[in-house]
Amino acid sequence: ETGVTQSPTHLIKTRGQQVTLRCSSQSGHNTVSWYQQALGQGPQFIFQYYREEENGRGNFPPRFSGLQFPNYSSELNVNALELDDSALYLCASSPHGAEPREAKNIQYFGAGTRLSVL
Amino acid sequence: KQEVTQIPAALSVPEGENLVLNCSFTDSAIYNLQWFRQDPGKGLTSLLLIQSSQREQTSGRLNASLDKSSGRSTLYIAASQPGDSATYLCAVREAAGNKLTFGGGTRVLVKP
Prior knowledge:
Shape of chain B: globular
Oligomer: heterodimer
Number of strands of chain B: 11
Mean pLDDT of chain B: 94
Number of strands of chain A: 11
Structural class of chain A: mainly beta
Helix content of chain B: under 10%
């Protein structure tokens, strides 16, 4: 158990719809990162939030957006869903995301949300 | 752009045999490298983290080495057991940012 919880565990949507995924970070962690993992592939970095501000973004279009709340929980929103958005979405929390010199900064992953777009 | 490769993509061994999993990365400017385990349909479990200044880390039957200059890491699992069957992923954290860049994983099957 990492203390990182994601909801829902599974979700089925149709093309063109919008979806919101949620993540509660481990207690004391102020940084949340989101990853997309397509079937049979490694996770791909979507973006990271530190103290409610976006702190780095991967190669994903603007229809992927996020929020971080004062309690450091986070949401991932995806608009205009496409079939290729079907994947496992992973959330990871860490304590000091804005300090890259902290080499011991380990990211703790949740169990993920499985999104299927039909 | 950092690229991480894991070879082989899949591996099947009899119980008791030692496992050797390879990971290579293109940019040696990393802060650390982490090995994860992933069971089917599940999240990631961190196994070992090696700082950029370290050469290896050990935890029980697991040993991971890092050669930053050549862009390689190896995960050794001694005396494999059927419960070791899973996908193993390596990820590097780059010096210039906070994200992890993952390899595609090695799917391991340990046969009883």
